[in-house]
Amino acid sequence: MTLLQGTLDLLILKALALTELHGLGISHRISQITNGTFQVKPGSLFPALHRMEEAGWLSSVWGDSENNRRAKFYRLTAAGRRQLKTETRQWETIALAIASALQTS
Amino acid sequence: MPFLSRLASLRRNLFSRPRVERDLDEELRAYLDQLTEEKRQEGMGAEEARRAARLELGGLEQVKEEVRQVRTGQVLDEFLRDLRHGFRALRRNPAFTVVAVLALALGIGANTAMFSVAYGMLLRPLPYPDADRVAVIYMRYFPRDFAFGTMCIRDYLMWKESNRAFEDPALFRSLRMDIGGQEGVPEQVQGASVTAGFFSTLQAPPLIGRTFASGEDKPAAASLAVLGESIWRRRFAASAAVLGRTILVNGAPSTVIGVMPGAFRFPRRDTEVWTSLPLNPPTRYGPWFYRGVARLRPGVTIEQAQAETNSIGLRMMQQNPYYKRLTMPVLGLRDAVLGVTLKPAIMVLIGAVGLVLLIAVVNVANLMLARATVREREMALRLSLGAGRGRLVRQLLTESVLLAVMGGSAGLALAWGGIELIRAWNPGNLPLIDSVRLDWSALGFMIFVSMLTGILFGLAPALASARADLNSTLKEGGRTGAGGQARGRARAALVVSEIAVSLMLLVGAGLLLRSFVNLERVTGGFSTPPRQILTVLISPGSRKYNDPRAGLAFYDEVLRRARNVPGVEIAAVTDSLPPDQQGDADTFGMEGQTLAPGETNPIISDATVGPDFFRTLGIPLVKGRLFTNRDTQDSAPVAIVSEGFVRRFLPHQEAIGTRIRQSGPALGNQWMEIVGVVGNVKYLGLTVDTDPAYYMPFAQNYGPRMLLIVRSSGDATQLEGALRREVQSIDPGVTLAQAATMEQALTLSVSQPRFDTMLLSLFAGIALLLAAVGVYGLIAYSVAQRTHEIGVRMALGAARTDVVRMVVRQGAALAAIGIALGLGGAFALTQLLRTMLFGVGVTDALTFAAAPLAMMLVVLLATSVPALRATHISPVLALRYE
Predict the structure, then answer these.
(1) Is the ipTM value over 0.85, yes or no?
(2) Strand, helix or coil at B571?
(3) What is the pTM of this model?
(4) B127, B141, B787, B846: which one has the fewest Cβ atoms less than 10 Å from its Cβ?
C-alpha cells in the first residue's frame, strides 16, 4: 500500500520512539507496527532519513548491528520527540475528521 | 535547534563533500549486506540472496541521487559543481570556447556600446528638472517655410497672452557675441539673448550669483549677463568677484549677475553667455529671430498644448495676411536638442546591432549543437546513472550562461573602447554626447543581454540532449544516428538564417553607403577645391564700425592685408556660405510683378558679398558681369541672381536689367538692377535641390560682422595664424572665430549621415564575418563527418574536383536559400531607411544586386577551405578509420 503524503515521517519518528535503529531495522519496525501494511522501500527510506536528520529531528551514529556488522543507527533528538508529538496530534485530528466525514450518510 | 542543524548540514554538504558521500556509500552498502544476510538466513543461496537484495534496493546510484536531492544546499551545490564542470568543459575545448566567446563579445560589445549611445541620447534625464515638461515653440509659415522656424516678438507677445497650456513662457535667440572688457582680449563666443523667464522655465539654478528675475526683460531694464562656467574659468579665473562687474557684449556694457554650471547647455551646446532680452513693444512684424521655451502646466499634455498653440497660430494668420499656412510646432525639449532626424537613425542602428547579436547567438547555438552531438554519449551515460533530465538541462544551461557571461565581459571591454572612441571623436557631431558613457545602466544591460543570450543559445541544444534516447545513443557507439541528422538540419537552418540576416544588414549598409557617396559627390556649386578655402568670422568689435564708411574702410584694409599673406591667392568677404544654412534669407520684390494683396514672393537665400566672392569660391558667371570696386555706396544699386532664381522667377524675361528689391514692399527698400547671373550655390545644405538666391554688393548693403574667405595655393589650414595676426594688427578690438576650411565645413555638414553609414557598415561587416564563421563551421563539420563517405567516393574513382564541387555545392545551396530569404527581408526592412537616404531609392537595383553577390562570394570562400581540405582525405586512411 502506498503511503500517504507526510505519513512516512510520522512512521519513522514512531518507529524510533522506543530505541535507536539502523535503516533495515527501521523498515522492519514500520512493517511490524503497521501489521505489514507498509513496506518502506530504500528509495524512499534513505532520502527521508537524511532529510529528517538535516532537519535536526534525528541524529545518527555508526555502530555494530546484531550480527556484528557496521551500520548507521538513527535515534530521535529532543526536537524529534517534539515533532513526533506534534505530528501525532495533527494526525489524530485529521483521522478523526476524515472518519466523521465518512460516517455521515 | 533546527536552524543551526540546517546550517551545520549546509556547511558539511558543501565543504566536506567526500566524507558525506563516503558515509552515504557505506550506509547503503551496510544496508545491502544486512539484507543479503537476512535473505540467506531465510534459506537462499549466497548468490541468490545477493541478487534478491540488490533487486529490492533498486539501483544503488539512483538511491544515492535521491538522497542527494534532499540535502540542504543541494541547488547551490549543484550550481557550483555545474560551474566547475562548465569551466573544465570549456577549457578542454579551447577552439570552441575562443570562437564562441569572440562571437559573443562582438555581439554583446556592439550592443552595449550602441545601448549606451541610445540611452545617453534618448533616455538619460536631461540636466534640467522635469525636462519632459519643457517644450520649445517654433513657427512655420509660408513663404518662409522652415519646418522649425523662428518667430518675431510680436508673434510671441500674442501667443503668450492667449496661451493657457504653458506656464513661465520665455523667448530666446542664439547669436554670436563679441565679449570684451578689462579682463582680457576681446573674443567672439556663442551667446543667447533671453527673456526673464528663461532660466526659471528650465528650473536651472546658477553656480554662483543669480539668474534673471521677472521684470528684468522690461523695455528700459538694465542690460544683464549670465556667464557659462567655461568662459568664467577662462576669462575670470573662476573668481566670485565677477558678480557685479561690467563686461562689454557686442560693444555695450552689461552687468554680470550669475554663472551657470557647465552642464547647462541650452539653447546650444556651445552657448557661453546669456544676456537679458528687452521686450520692446514692437512697431512692426519682424525680425524673425526668436523661439519660445515654456513649461507645461500640470496635467496638460504636449498634444493639448500643440492644439492650443495651433489655434492661436490660426488667429495670428488672420491678423497678418503676410502669414500663409501658419503652424506653431511644439517640440519636447529633448527632441528640440537632438533634432528630429537623429532619433529615427538611432532606432535603425539599435535594430541593426540587435540583428548582429542575433547572428552571434545563432553562431554560438550552432557551435553548441555541434558539440552536443559529440557529448551525446556523456549525457546518455549520466541519464542512465540516475541524473534527472531537468538536472541535465540545468547543467547545460549553466555552461551556456557561463559562456555568455565570459563573452559579455569581453564585450564590455570592447564597448568601453568603442564609447571612448565615439566620445573623443564624436563623428556624428551628436548633440548630447556628454551624456553618452558606460555606466551601471550599461553594465546592467550587458548582464541582462548575456543571460538572455546564454539561455537563448543554450536552451535548444540542452533540451535536445536531455531528450536523448538512451538505448539507441549508447548502442550507436558515438556514430551519428537519427538524432544527429535532425541536428544537422537544425544547424543548416540556423546558418541559412544567419546568411539571411547578414544580407539584410549588408543591403542596408550598401544603401547608406551609396547615399553617402552621393552626398560626398554633391558640390556646393563652387569649383575651388574645398581644401583650399579658409573661412573665418570677423567681428570688428568697436561700435564705430557700425558706420558703413568706417566699416568699409576697415574691410578694405582686412582684404589688402589678407592678400599679402603668403599663400593667399585671392580674398573676399561675404555674410553667407554654403553648405549649412549659414546666411540670411528674405523675400524680395520685382518690378513689374503684380502680386495679390498680402501676397509676397517666397523667402530665399540672399547674400551680401564683396567683389571677389565669386572668383574666390569659383562660382561661374553665366551672364552679365560680377560685382566690382565701382559698385559703391554712391553708384547705382545693383544685384546678381542665381540661375535657379532666373529659372523660377524670370523664365520668360531677360534677367539682366530687371530690377528687384530686398524684403517685402513695406520696408520700401531701393530697387537694384540685376547685372549678372551666376551658378547655383547650396546655401541651405547639400541635400536641398533648388536653392534660388540673390546677391547684393557689400558696399551697398554693409553689415559689421562678415566672413573673410581666402583661397590658398595649397593647404588652407596653414594660413589661419598669419591671417589672425594681420587682421588683429589693424585694431586690437577685432575678433576672429570659427576658422575652418570649406572641407571641414562640408565634412561637418554630412557628419550624421557619415556616423549612420559608418556604424551600419561596421555592423554589417561584423555580421558578415560571423556568418562566414558559421558557414565555415558547418561545412567543416560536415566534411569531417563525411570523411568515410568521401574516402569511399575517392576510392571508387571520384576526382578531387568532384569532391570540391560536392562540398561547395552544399555551401552554395545554403547561401542561395539564405540570400532568397534575406532579399525578402531587406525589401521590407529598408523602408525604414527611406528618410535617411539621399539620391538613392530604398530598392536600389545596384545595391540589391551587389550585396547578394558579395554574400555568395563570402560563403563560397568560407566553404572552399574545408572543401580543399576534403580533397586531401586519403581513401585508405578514411576506410581504415572505421
Answers:
(1) yes
(2) strand
(3) 0.77
(4) B846
